[in-house]
Amino acid sequence: MRIIFLGPPGSGKGTQAHLISNKYNIPNISTGMMLRQSFPKDPYQSHKIRKNIINVMHTGNLVNDDFMVQLINTRINKNDCYNGFLLDGFPRTILQAEFMKKYKIFVNYVIEFVISDSTVINRITGRRIHINSGRTYHIQFNPPKICGLDDITGESLTTRKDDCEQTIRKRLHNYHQYTEPVLNYYRHESKSKKIQYFSIDANRKITEIYKELISLLINK
Ligand code: AMP
C-alpha cells in the first residue's frame, strides 16, 4: 500500500500518518520530520546545508526541490519501503510530483485533508512535538498523558519554531500557491483509476478521521 497524505499544516496529517502506518505496518515518511531530526552521517546534510535548511523551515518557506527529491529518493529505495509507504509532506510542489512519476514511484492512494485556514491558525498554537520520534500532541485535542512529556519516552515536548502565527500564515500561503496545484495534479491522475483520490473533512475528532481512513483504504 502506497499512500500520500496532502493537506495544510495543522490539518492532522502527522497524527493520522502515525496511526495508519502502524496499522498497515508501512514506514511513515514525513519529510518535515526527516529535516527536523539531525542525521550527522547523512552526506546531504553537511553543516552549511543543514543551517540553510533550518533557516528556510523557520521562516515557513519550502526547502528546494532538488534537495527534497534526493532526500526522498534515498529514503524510498530502502528495504523497508518494499511493501509500501506513507508519504506525509511530499510531494509539495508540481516538480516533486513529476519527479515521482518520472522515477516510476507509483502510489495507490492520495488523501487530501480539508480544513480552513482560520481553523489551522487556531489549532496550531496548541501543538507540541517530541522531536526525536516526531510524535505530535495538542494540548486540547490530543494531550499527552502527562502534561509536557512524551507518552512513550517521558522526554520533554517542545513547540516547533515554525508554529508561530506569522510563520503559519506563510506556510498556508505556500500551501495554496505550491501544493494546491499538486492536488489538482493527482485529481487528474486519478482519472486513470490507478490512483484513488479522496478528500476528507479534517475538522473532526482524531478517532472519526481514523475510522474514515480505514474504511477508504480497505474497501476500495
Ligand atoms: P512539515 O513538518 O511537513 O510541516 O514540514 C516542515 C517544513 O519542512 C516545511 O514548512 C518546509 O520548510 C519543509 N518541508 C517539508 N517537506 C517539504 C517538501 N516536500 N518540500 C519542501 N519543503 C519541505
Task: Give a written overview of the molecule.
This protein is α/β, with parallel strands linked by helices and 220 residues long. The protein has one domain (2-115, 173-219): 3-Layer(aba) Sandwich (Rossmann fold), CATH 3.40.50. Helix content is 45%, strand content 14%. It has helices at residues 13-24, 31-36, 47-58, 65-76, 94-102, 117-124, 165-189, 206-219; strands at residues 2-6, 28-30, 85-88, 109-114, 127-129, 136-138, 196-201. Strands 2-3-1-4-7 form a five-stranded parallel beta sheet, with helices on both faces. The protein has a two-stranded antiparallel ribbon with strand order 5-6. Strand 5 (127-129) and strand 6 form a beta hairpin. Helix 1 (13-24) crosses helix 8 (206-219) and helix 6 (117-124) crosses helix 7 (165-189). It starts with a strand and ends with a helix. The model has no long low-confidence stretch (mean pLDDT 91). Residues 9, 31-32, 35, 56-57, 60-63, 68, 89-90, 92, 96, 162, 171 line the site of adenosine monophosphate. Residues 9, 31-32, 35, 56-57, 60-63, 68, 89-90, 92, 96, 162, 171 line the site of adenosine monophosphate (AMP).
Characteristic key phrases:
8 helices; five-stranded parallel β-sheet; binds adenosine monophosphate; Rossmann fold; alpha/beta; two-stranded antiparallel sheet; 45% helix
Summarize the structure.
The chain is an alpha/beta fold and 220 residues long. Helices cover 45% and strands 14% of the residues.
